[in-house]
Amino acid sequence: MAARAGGLMLGAALDALLADPARRHPVAGFGRAAGRLERLLYRDDRAAGALYTTLLLAAVVVPAAAAERAGARTRGSAPIAPAAPVAPAAPVSPVAPIALADSVAPWAPVVMTAALTWVVLGGASLRRQGRRLGAELRAGDLAAARARLPTLCGRDPSRLDEAGVARGAIESIAENTCDAVVAPLWWGAFAGLPGLAGYRAVNTLDAMIGHHSDRYERFGWAAARLDDLVNLLPARLCALATCACAPVVGGSVADAFWVMRRDGRSHPSPNAGMAEAAFAGALGLRLGGELRYPYRVEHRPELGFGRPPRGADVLAAARLSGAVSALCLAVTALAGGTAGALLAAGLRGLRRACCPRGVGGTCPALRQGGSRR
């Protein structure tokens, strides 16, 4: 668990420094593979969508679990130094390879966790696009801001004014602070590599097919419901962290918490509404209302009690997202490490109670020829 927490923090640092890979992003590759499989399996019913989602989820979770198990075995294995070497032919220390293995093996889980965390996180790219869009709105370049909005959300920007573009950007920043940062960290802390890979697969499938459109209303049902389930706890953590970080953007903790409690459940999504309402309260804005997508127009309840957003508010939302991400990284790493320590202590106590060690550290049942069962 310590290696897992260290890998999460290192991966988050890599995301902050490097952002997403510009080319050949593994998540984009997963999306292309999912698109090809969809052409083979698509049927306008829930069972086909559930099979499609299950196959793609297994395709990433099973290899991730195997990699984590292999890393744990590597870290737990201790090479035994050979007995006195017999006249080595070259002046090379016979324990050098063993020393190298001893020094590299403990870092394998950390490196794997850090690499996968960097791949699945998207907080740096999210904040970068938000800052650029906010700067374009502040400069009065509405056309450029409209062109950038699809990098943040799937709305039709052609008929949006400054307030509409800013509202779409802020709502997307709020929701994706959970989806791209908090939830991956949460699942990485408590489920390791399978949690990281599995969450990103579920969230990507929800973004691809979890829509209320004619094509995906039934086929995307399983992906959308699974995404709601895996985000249930991380979304509440993100919302509470947003309330705690409200002073970073000049907001009130009490106002953010009050708006979150009052308006968070009025959103059609059981998770996105919590984060969006907390952002609205922290920034002193009014979000929600009419949303125009290429496939439909939705009318959602308003969130918050403030004014309509402007370009400067998008910049503030990006700062708030960064603060929330940092706080949730600390919380999830600490919580995951604590839970792991408690679990390990409980397992050790159970092992001592069920199978006390005898002479030589061997279980008495095994010394007597008994089965491990």
UniProtKB/TrEMBL annotation:
Main location: membrane
Keywords carried by this UniProt record: Cell membrane, Cobalamin biosynthesis, Membrane, Transmembrane, Transmembrane helix
Molecular function GO labels: ABC-type vitamin B12 transporter activity; threonine-phosphate decarboxylase activity
Domain of life, per lineage: Bacteria
UniProt pathway: Cofactor biosynthesis; adenosylcobalamin biosynthesis
Function noted in UniProt: Converts cobyric acid to cobinamide by the addition of aminopropanol on the F carboxylic group.
Protein name per Swiss-Prot or TrEMBL: Cobalamin biosynthesis protein CobD
Organism: Frankia alni (strain DSM 45986 / CECT 9034 / ACN14a)
Taxonomic placement: Bacteria, Bacillati, Actinomycetota, Actinomycetes, Frankiales
